[in-house]
Task: structure prediction
Amino acid sequence: MSRVSILVVDDEPNYLVVLSELLQDEGFEVFTAADGEAGLAVVDNVDLDLVVTDMQMPGINGLQLLARVKEKKKDLPVIVITAFAEVDKAVAAMQAGAFSYLAKPFSNDELIVTLRKAAHHYSLIRENSRLRDQIRSTTGFSGMIGKNEKILQVYQLIEKVAPTQAAVLVTGESGTGKELVAKAIHLNSPREAQPFIAVNCAALSQNLLESELFGHEQGAFTGAVAMRKGRLEQADGGTVFLDEVGAIPPSVQAKLLRVLQEKNFERVGGSTTIEVDVRIISATNRDLREDVATGSFREDLFYRLNVIPVHLPALRERMDDIPLLTDYFVDKYRQELARPALSISPEAVKLLLRLPWEGNIRELENTIERAAVLCANDRIEAEDVQPETLYGEERPSWDSDLDLQQLLPEDVGLNDVLYAVEKKMLVRALYDTDYVQARAAEKLGITKSLLQYKMKKYRISKKR
Result:
């Protein structure tokens, strides 16, 4: 462990010598300065752990030195030595950020205890800072994982964009973590303490989306039994994240453009203009420029949303991050499933590195989650993460006549479909069996424990 480095500033040479020898005998590394200017030079050039300064000195006095040190290194502890009668100056020093003060005369023990407390305090600050930097280097922001050069560039862009009020458009394939980027921008912005509200624009019809965003007045339409504030109003002062913004119909696009331009709107069925202060972050896995060219997306809205573009790379473009992501998800499900010994074999990780990951990070997480639930002996092996284990060798016979074009929108992602279908099948099986879990699990061809886990995952009630 390195020695604690102390700067002692005092204009009395004899006192400097005595204090320096005392502190060296106690194991401290001591630097001395006969005035404030010399002390500031040491602060600039030495990695110090704390500063001790006398209050009364010619030139720069103790209070002025304290202020200058805090300008340079705001967390560096400063201890001020005052005369017994200078209580008002000691109070002023504490208000200006001094760690503590010592009134003359003081004992050597009192001095050493105070210095050790200050050094320990500073070491904790430094360790916390180091850990934050370490976390940022591996997780970036808000749960984002990765060290690949492309994702590091995303982190850097987030760091630049977050403090501003600029609209951000996040692009990337389904499952790459676009909402995580939006949350990271919000959490690193001045709006951090205000609401972050996400709206999936592709999941709602035109009327529902308009009501969801702008709210409605009582009686605005059938079923509007009371006034309801929309997401934009609820997020006043904060951030609204519009996921799959390309799915917004033209009539709603016009109202959203007005919010971006004028910061106001009316609720559906209302005439009162509502002022809002919200930051809009949007995301899409579509090429909005093509939608602008075909006329399905307003050009003026596109440019309002796309002030700062942030593109997320696909997982296949950052395969070197798979081990980090895998460790993160294994740890996540180790805790969620209460399996403290859960681990993954090197062979399984090697297989994960060879798979295409068309569903990106979301698909990887789904794979780890499934393997964590089904693996034997708390160890995920290569066979647990094989893609074919999802369905087995035989394919269902009913899929030959399935017309996906009639059932699904063209831009819906595979994992979105799997999530929706799985939840609906669970609910239907439970309903058909009068919520008898053993029978529902048998109907679905899964174990009762797996059914219970998935019910918890999708927040499905245990009773009808």
Notes: The mean pLDDT is 87. Residues 140 and 156 are 9 Å apart (CA to CA).
